[in-house]
Design brief:
This protein is mostly helical and 456 residues long. It has helices at residues 26-87, 89-96, 103-118, 123-128, 135-143, 149-166, 168-180, 182-189, 209-221, 245-258, 261-276, 280-311, 319-329, 331-353, 358-380, 388-394, 396-413, 419-440; strands at 197-199, 203-207, 236-241. Helix 3 crosses helix 6. The chain starts with 25 loop residues before the first helix and ends in a 16-residue tail after the last helix.
Length: 456
C-alpha cells in the first residue's frame, strides 16, 4: 500500500473526477461574463442619461447663442459698412469717385443743369442783347442746331453741360466736393441738413451750383453774354430718394453706435455656442454655415430692394443714375457679404474635413494617399528630404497649427478683405499644409533589385 490518497496532488486519478476540481465549468464562466457585461452596460446607460440630463440646459443655451450669432452676422456686415461709409472720409470718397465718370450720372447731371438754366433764360432778352448786325449770324448758328429757337438754345446749353460733366476737371471737382461735404453726408444720414448734401422729404440731394456756373462761363465764352447776368442757380441733383430714407437714418444711427463692436459680438456668441455644445465640431460647422446663409439672405435682399427702389422712383429722377448711385454706395457692402459667405464656408469645410466622419476620412485618405504617392515618386527619383523629413514628422501638429494661425492673422489684418482674398488665403494654407504633409510622409520601403542581390 502506498501512502497516496485521492486528495493528494500526485494522485493520477484526480483529473478523472471533474466534480472534485473546485472550478466552475465553461458555461458558468460565460454566464458570469454576460451578467457583468449587462451590469456594466446598465451602469453606462445610467451615467449617459445623467450626463445628457446635466448637459441639456447647456446644449439649449448653446443653440440659442448660435442662432443669435448667426442672426447678428448680416447686421454686423451692415454696421461695418455704415461705420466705414460715414465715419471714414477716404473710404467714402473712394466709394463715390467712380460716379463722376458714369455715363448715366453724367447724362442726368447734364439734363438737370440744362433744365435749371433754361428756366432762367428769356429768349426775347437773348435777342435784344445781341447787336442788330449780329442777329442773323446768331439765328443762323442756332438754326444749324435744328428745331425751333428754344430747342436750339436748349441743345446748345445741353452740349456745354455735357462737355463739363465729361471733362477730367469735373471728376476732380466731384472728388474734392465729396471730400468737403462728407461731414454733410453724416448730417444727412442723421436727419439734419446743411452743406451740399441735404435730406429733405426722404430725399438725399446734391447741389449742382458749381456745375451750372461752369456751363454759364462756357456760354459767355461762346458769345452768349446774357448768361453772365443769370443769377446763381442751385439745382438739386437727387442721389437717393425713397420713402424709407427717414426710417433708414434711424437704423444707420444705431448701426453707427454699434460700429465695429457688432461683428465682435457676433463672433463671440458663435464661439460661446460652440464651446458649450457637446459636439463642438458639428456646432462650429452649423454656426459658420448659419452665418453664411444669413449673410447670403442679406445679399439677396440688397438685389431685391434695388428692383423695388428703382421701380418707385419719381418720374423726374433718372433710373440709370439712381441705379448707378445705389450700386456704387452698396458696392463695398456686397463685397463684405461675399467675404463673410466665403469665410463661413471655408471654416465650416475645414472643420468638417478634420472630423471623424466617414466621408471626411475618405477625403483625408485621398489627400494623404495622393501626397504619399508624390513622395514615393520623388524618393524613387532620388529627391530625399534628409533630416528635414523626420524633424517635420515629429513636429507636424505644431507646423499645422502655426500655419492655421498665420492664415487667420493675415485675414484679420487685411484692411478690406474680399471673397477672393479669403479664398486665396485658404488656397495658400492648403498648399502649405500639403508641403508639410509631403515632408512628413514616411519614405517608401525600397527592396533590392535582382541584379544587385547579394550572392551567397
Amino acid at each position: 500500500m502506498n501512502g497516496a490518497t485521492p486528495d493528494h496532488p500526485g494522485d493520477p486519478d484526480r483529473s478523472d473526477r471533474p466534480g472534485d476540481s473546485g472550478r466552475p465549468d465553461r458555461s458558468e464562466l460565460d454566464d458570469l461574463r454576460a451578467r457583468l457585461a449587462a451590469l456594466e452596460a446598465e451602469r453606462h446607460a445610467r451615467q449617459g442619461e445623467g450626463t445628457r440630463t446635466r448637459h441639456r440646459p447647456a446644449s439649449a443655451l448653446a443653440a440659442v447663442l448660435l442662432v443669435i450669432g448667426c442672426l447678428l452676422a448680416p447686421l454686423a456686415v451692415v454696421a461695418t459698412w455704415a461705420a466705414d461709409l460715414v465715419g471714414d472720409t477716404d473710404r467714402y470718397v473712394a466709394t463715390v469717385a467712380p460716379l463722376a465718370s458714369d455715363p448715366a450720372v453724367q447724362d442726368a447731371a447734364a439734363n438737370r443743369a440744362t433744365d435749371a438754366l433754361m428756366d432762367r433764360i428769356h429768349l426775347p432778352t437773348l435777342l435784344s442783347d445781341v447787336a442788330p448786325k449780329d442777329r442773323p449770324l446768331l439765328e443762323k448758328a442756332l438754326g444749324a442746331l435744328g428745331g425751333g429757337l428754344e430747342n436750339a438754345v436748349r441743345g446748345f446749353v445741353h452740349d456745354q453741360a455735357r462737355k463739363v460733366v465729361a471733362s477730367s476737371a469735373f471728376a476732380t471737382v466731384w472728388t474734392d466736393a465729396n471730400r468737403r461735404i462728407h461731414a454733410s453726408l453724416d448730417k444727412a444720414l442723421t436727419g439734419t441738413g446743411g452743406g451740399a448734401v441735404q435730406l429733405n422729404d426722404d430725399t438725399v440731394t446734391l447741389d449742382l451750383a458749381p456745375l451750372i456756373d461752369d456751363v454759364k462761363k462756357r456760354m459767355v465764352d461762346a458769345g452768349m453774354t446774357f448768361a453772365s447776368h443769370i443769377p446763381a442757380v442751385h439745382a438739386q441733383f437727387t442721389l437717393v430718394e425713397s420713402q424709407q430714407v427717414g426710417k433708414v437714418k434711424t437704423y444707420v444711427r444705431l448701426l453707427r453706435i454699434a460700429g465695429n463692436w457688432l461683428p465682435v459680438l457676433a463672433v463671440l456668441l458663435i464661439a460661446a455656442g460652440v464651446l458649450l455644445s457637446l459636439r463642438r465640431r458639428r456646432a462650429l460647422v452649423a454656426g459658420c454655415l448659419g452665418a453664411a446663409v444669413a449673410t447670403a439672405l442679406l445679399g439677396i435682399g440688397l438685389r431685391v430692394f434695388r428692383v423695388f427702389y428703382l421701380d418707385r422712383l419719381p418720374a423726374d429722377v433718372s433710373p440709370g443714375a439712381a441705379g448707378a448711385v445705389y450700386d456704387t454706395l452698396t458696392r463695398f457692402l456686397e463685397t463684405a457679404v461675399r467675404t463673410v459667405i466665403v469665410l463661413g464656408v471655408v471654416i465650416a469645410l475645414g472643420a468638417w474635413l478634420s472630423g471623424p466622419g466617414r466621408r471626411a476620412g475618405l477625403v483625408r485618405g485621398l489627400w494623404t494617399d495622393g501626397i504619399g504617392a508624390a513622395r514615393g515618386t520623388a524618393d524613387h527619383a532620388g529627391l530625399r528630404t534628409g533630416p528635414v523629413g523626420p524633424f517635420v514628422r515629429r513636429h507636424r501638429p505644431w507646423f499645422t497649427w502655426i500655419l492655421v494661425a498665420v492664415a487667420v492673422l493675415v485675414c484679420l489684418l487685411w484692411p478690406y478683405p474680399t471673397g477672393w482674398v479669403v479664398l486665396g488665403i485658404a488656397l495658400c494654407l492648403l498648399f502649405a499644409l500639403a508641403v508639410v504633409e509631403f515632408l512628413a510622409a514616411e519614405p517608401p520601403h525600397r527592396t533590392p533589385r535582382e541584379g544587385h542581390a547579394a550572392h551567397p
